[in-house]
Amino acid sequence: MSNSPFPALPHVLMGKIVSWKHSNEECNHGEKAVEFLIKKLKSKKGVLDDLANILIDPNQPISKCITIPNSSDKRIQIGYKKYFPHVLYCRLWRWADLQNHHELKAKDYCQYSFSQSKTDVCINPYHYDRIYSTVLPSIIIPRMDENFSTYQELPYDHSIVNNYYPQECDSLNSIQNVYPVQVQYDDQTLSSSYSSCIQKWCTLAYYEYFDRVGEKYNVTTPFVYVDGYTSPLNTYPNRFSLGVISNVQRRSEVKKVRSIIKDGIELSQTCFGDVYVRNLSYTSSIYVRSILYNRLNGFRDTTVCKILPNSRSNIVLNNQLLFKYDYFKQLLIQSMPLSYDYVNELSKLCSIRLSFVKGWGSDYAQSDITSTPCWLEIQLNKPLLEIDHILQQIEPQGFITSFS
């Protein structure tokens, strides 16, 4: 039984919430997290008193573990969001700007730390130390993916596919030895009929919720601006202005987001085939899902990354990588000996989705990008054509292609 002189009253726990966020919605969300915890702990005699004591007097000698049951995915659900419990309560009661579990390290004496993966997990915020990054990132990985600790960040020269595919697939020569069809991978052997398509290195499609609006836009310059202004389409070869795209059934929420887009983004392709994005807005974030970028960094395929607004104090804007061409070629070569389906599956790496202003996924109210008001689908044409080149050597001509 706890000897704490402090009663475990809800207002004690609520009163110790640090500056969570400024919106009423987020403040209410923090209160719901406390209410959730009280329900979990109220049946454990003295534990709520212990927690209240810890929060009121954090400088006391080694405190007890405050535990709740661990779930199968190690997360708890508060409203429509899911969190790692230790991250959530450290954020509530110690560090309001805490981003993810990688910034936390359990103290040696914590018997139920998150990393131990026991049936119970400790949420005592003073059983964890914070590891501060020396660089402030311009891209934020959503907290919803914190539970996928089995995905480790991989150095570029160690492809993820090495974990799944045979070692004899490590080179093109070995591929040709183990695969009966002599598949040739060479940029120069691509059909000349594809040459004009390759010059259009990406194709942009603009959506409002479920519906594609306007014509697709082929990008033929090394970089393109996508903004919310009203420059007539085709006036500038490197500008795609969403403001001129009409929709008689446009919803009010779409109009609101379109008015915020303004300077929008810059998409660019390097001479090496890498694709980057820059957020040019000073006021709003963009949200991006690039499966190839996620795999390159050991994230879940469905991870949606938040790219923060540009600061007016920045003289040079940072480019955010979306597509690493050499890494794609590495994956393509290593998938060749497996099957037609393995190669064709790489087509999804060539499509990038980007939403303006509103995010989507388990960390947001919108579960799917089709629930966001304004978004783009970015199709990378050269990688798709290279997939087709391989597929046509594996199966007879006329079989389905990555553009099907």
Automatic annotation (TrEMBL):
Pfam families: MH1, MH2. GO terms for biological process: anatomical structure morphogenesis; BMP signaling pathway; cell differentiation; SMAD protein signal transduction. Residues 201-404 form the MH2 domain. Keywords: Cytoplasm, Metal-binding, Nucleus, Transcription, Transcription regulation, Zinc. The keyword Cytoplasm applies. Residues 7-137 form the MH1 domain. One of its GO terms (cellular component) is heteromeric SMAD protein complex. Its main location: cytoplasm. It is found in: Cytoplasm; Nucleus. GO terms for molecular function: DNA-binding transcription factor activity, RNA polymerase II-specific; I-SMAD binding; metal ion binding; RNA polymerase II cis-regulatory region sequence-specific DNA binding. Belongs to the dwarfin/SMAD family. PANTHER family: SMAD. This is Mothers against decapentaplegic homolog. It comes from Didymodactylos carnosus. The lineage of its organism: Eukaryota, Metazoa, Spiralia, Gnathifera, Rotifera.
